Amino acid sequence: MKLDKYTAILGNTIGYPDMEGLTDRRPLASLPFDAKYRLIDFQLSSLANAGIHSIYGLFQRDNTSSIFDHVRSGREWGLDSLLSHWYLGFYNTKYNDHTTDRAYYEQLLTFLKRSGSDRTVYMGCDMLCNIDIRQVIRLAERAHSPMTVVYKRVPASMVTPANEVLEVSADDEVIGKGTLPEYRAGLAGVDISPDTSTGLAHEFADPDELISMSADIYVLETNWLIAQMEEEVKNEHPRKLRFLLRSLLEEHRALAFGYTGYLANITSVKSYFDANMDMLEPEHFYSLLYSNQKVYTKVKNEESTYFSPECEIEDSQFASGSIIKGRVKKSIISRSCHVDEDSFVCHSIAFSKVHVGSGARVEYAVLDKNVVIQPGVTVKGTPEKPLVITKGSIVEEDIIR
Amino acid sequence: MKTELLALILAGGQGSRLGKLTQHIAKPAVQFGGRYRIIDFALSNCANSGVRNVGVITQYQPLALNEHIGNGSSWGLNGVDSGVSILQPYSATEGNRWFQGTSHAVYQNIDYIDRIDPEYVLILSGDHIYKMDYDDMLSHHKENHASLTVAVIDVPLEEASRFGIMNTDSNGRIMEFEEKPAHPKSTKASMGIYIFTWSRLRELLVNADKNGVDMLDFGKNVIPAYLKSDERVYTYDFEGYWKDVGTIDSLWEANMEYIGEDNLLHSRDRKWKIYSKNLISPPHFIDGHARVHDSLVVDGCFISGDVIHSILSTNVQVKDGAVVEDSFIMSGAIIGQGAHVRRAIVGENAVIGDGVVIDGNVCGVDGQNADGAPAGTPSAAPVAGVASMPEVQVVGHNEIVGVPDEA
């Protein structure tokens, strides 16, 4: 394959208010996942596995140091070789804004025009999956489709107001779209105005009904995309790429590609927590991390994890470099953690360098990096509302939700 | 710019005492401690000591070693002013250049060394487990105005006759060198780590070759020649953990000593990290049936069975009902359901079939063919009738033990 045939744009996410401090100091893209990864690893690995070496990362200007620190030259994803390109572009508007400034598009247009690529892949970091992009590209090429979108059939309970629901024809073309309530109202023939629709998704939903949710992953003809962007940038407040692309789906009867592998929609602490816990089910773990496509992450030189004679472990995952002496059940423990004697960690996620003191209890909690739980202290959330302990906190008194 | 110090790692030995483990790979490439290969210790010491140029001299089965070292980026040795070169024997107009000894291997790579143009060369072996600051050794070499400094370690008197022993004066100047003396006069054993002032060594090796003098081996020829010509030869006293892992027993022992929250090497000390080429794997998974006690586990492992006082390297699977005890399991190995592995070293990607017993504690008649494997009795099983001391059992790389042929 010619190296510069495909390019990719790695979009940042739209803002999610209920991440409870997990995204205060880092973009969602660099949120740790399953002990060893960060969310951006999955997108970068999908692109690397598809042989795409020219990537434009689009990030909000604040809090980008964790992205720099994690991706650096892109060596782990093969982005540091002579013929590869890894650009970072920044924009100034807020996460939550739908619109942006013209500079956002000017940088992007320069990148795309210089690339000389045939097709461009767009993906965001809030959809966690391990997709074989080559398959989507092949389909798009065979159908000569300027716009191909990836969707997955998911239970309605997974769909949030921020997601786009697609109506896909028997010929795999997008023939309708909207938020979940709009989609349901459309089916029922009810007219529903946009401002009352948000937030109502769960109220009248059958949570198990399967919905075609857009994964916001696209394969686009580069020249076609450039034309669309040039049109958009004429506006004083152009929409962000994600919203521009969504707006084009129906009009251009985009080709729809149904993804069947594991997918998690990370929009809240609860969905983030659940996606991590999914990894403790071998079925999901194997689907995401042991498929034909490897997931690459930043290399860390850590020692092995030591399990002491008194530790008790049940259904848990660990990265390297930790010392485990307590009881760990249904939990995910990242690099270089200490779980001391007689402590109990259950249904929880510990980011790297967390210290759980002796006799401490941690249940349904997400312990951010460098958190210390002092000996004997109890930290407890609920399955519906997991408790987040923010980065670097030293917890000296019980916190029970 | 002139380079101050060039390290040369002698990694060409066959390591025949490691038997099956070095059948297809060089000894320095044998795995150690869950995440490492033996040579990582020498390479990481170089990186941590600020040695920027390293030549790795290979000869025997270098494939795995070359792949592991690559461009040296895993040890940060791929910078603008640094590099790792793999030095292999080659043919030339004056004949083929197989290395016939340690110093001969250095002499044969004289062109490479001249190109780097170092003031000093550091000679290392690629088969020792230790942490050492070579920069400190170099300062001693310079302070003493030495032309050769030999790193020594204090060994128990009863073991001294297994080593090359340095007899020194009160200043640490070497007066006499005895290779494996029957009646050792000192307990300062050579670690096979030397710093030479390169101009002097170069002269010696070139002249020896010109005059047909046998100068093939550092211990046998070069050090005695230095002493005979009254060169300034000093010892450098090393204190700390140092282990030659040249035999099955010592390799197993060193691995067992490595298990723990801390160990004799203090390998968790972040100030002197050991680096390695990382295999990319998901976190390790311990399920509801597993018991893991007093063990080291790394990424990619999947444990359903019991693991007691053992090391599991990357991507090892221990299935339901299996027991692994006092063992070192190399990467990718699979321990089948209900299999028992005790006091053993299991090679890379080996497969231990369901119910197979490999037990280094039970030797002789009891242990023999305990698995009742139909075809290809595991060569790991002790030989019938030789009932003796318990012996560490070895399963070779890619070896399949007790799995019926499905064809």
Automatic annotation (TrEMBL), chain A:
Lineage of producing organism: Bacteria, Bacillati, Actinomycetota, Actinomycetes, Bifidobacteriales
Protein name as catalogued: Glucose-1-phosphate adenylyltransferase
InterPro entries on file: ADP-Glc_PPase (IPR011831), GlgDAde_trans (IPR011832), GlmU/GlgC-like_hexapep (IPR056818), NTP_transferase_dom (IPR005835), Nucleotide-diphossugar_trans (IPR029044), Trimer_LpxA-like_sf (IPR011004)
Keyword terms: Glycogen biosynthesis, Nucleotidyltransferase, Transferase
Residue ranges of every copy of the Nucleotidyl transferase domain listed in the record: 22-156
Span of the signal peptide: none
GO terms (BP aspect): glycogen biosynthetic process
Family stated for the protein in its record: Belongs to the bacterial/plant glucose-1-phosphate adenylyltransferase family.
Pfam families: Hexapep_GlmU, NTP_transferase
Residues of the Glucose-1-phosphate adenylyltransferase/Bifunctional protein GlmU-like C-terminal hexapeptide domain: 311-379
GO molecular function: glucose-1-phosphate adenylyltransferase activity
TrEMBL record, chain B:
Record domain Nucleotidyl transferase: where: 7-258
Signal peptide residues on this chain, from the entry's feature table: none
Protein's GO biological process: glycogen biosynthetic process
Chain ranges of the Glucose-1-phosphate adenylyltransferase/Bifunctional protein GlmU-like C-terminal hexapeptide domain: 289-358
Keywords, in A-Z order: ATP-binding, Carbohydrate metabolism, Glycogen biosynthesis, Glycogen metabolism, Nucleotide-binding, Nucleotidyltransferase, Transferase
Reactions this protein catalyses: alpha-D-glucose 1-phosphate + ATP + H(+) = ADP-alpha-D-glucose + diphosphate
Pathway given in the UniProt record: Glycan biosynthesis; glycogen biosynthesis
Enzyme Commission designation: 2.7.7.27
Residues at the site labelled Could play a key role in the communication between the regulatory and the substrate sites: Q59, W98
Family that this chain belongs to: Belongs to the bacterial/plant glucose-1-phosphate adenylyltransferase family.
The name this protein goes by in its record: Glucose-1-phosphate adenylyltransferase
Protein source organism: Alloscardovia macacae
Encoding gene per record: glgC
